[in-house]
């Protein structure tokens, strides 16, 4: 993960405020998540639209355009469940910029999930984020890319613990990320079992399984 903010081109700026109610209605939010929208979110702005007509990169069925949403917090942060509802309500990949005021200082973080578009509702993977940074942190130019799909992968790359492999598309990277998270959970569980296991033979078996999972994890990274 790399702490980075992008300099979004001026040509991509719609700057449209988005009603929270429309998002959680279209995103089929539960009552609990609706409450989080009300308690945690001050304002949602469709800040930028990265599309063929705004940045002159060809679109693809996988990534017709990329939206940048700015979410202003009422308090310390916004839950991933809120982001997931927005992702489900909006039919394009989204990069979120979340802002807050903390101890008299404005802070920002960038967060996104690999989002796969399909014939039904979009499939959203786990969220990855930068750390909180000062809101006036210097921004970097957009990565060089030959299509919106390639740009989307490049925008997500600093947020995730793995690099895209040559020829790998967004959905394949997302699947690998899910495998990495699954294996990390399994490795933590095995390590706890090894510490608690009193029988030597059983410890040996668990350590063998642990090494296998660790090797599998390295292959996925």
Number of strands: 7
Parts with pLDDT < 50 across at least 5 consecutive residues: none
Round the Cα radius of gyration to an integer and report it. 20 Å
- Give a quick account of the main beta sheet: strands, pairing sense, barrel closure: 7 strands, mixed
Question: What distance lies between the first and last C-alpha atoms, to the nearest angstrom?
Answer: 13 Å
Indicate the proportion of strand residues: 15-25%
Order of helices and strands: EHHEHEHEEEEHHH
Overall pLDDT confidence: 88
Q: What percent of the residues sit in helical stretches (DSSP H or I)?
A: 25-40%
Report the total helices. Answer: 7
Helix and strand content put the structural class at alpha+beta
The best one-word shape is globular
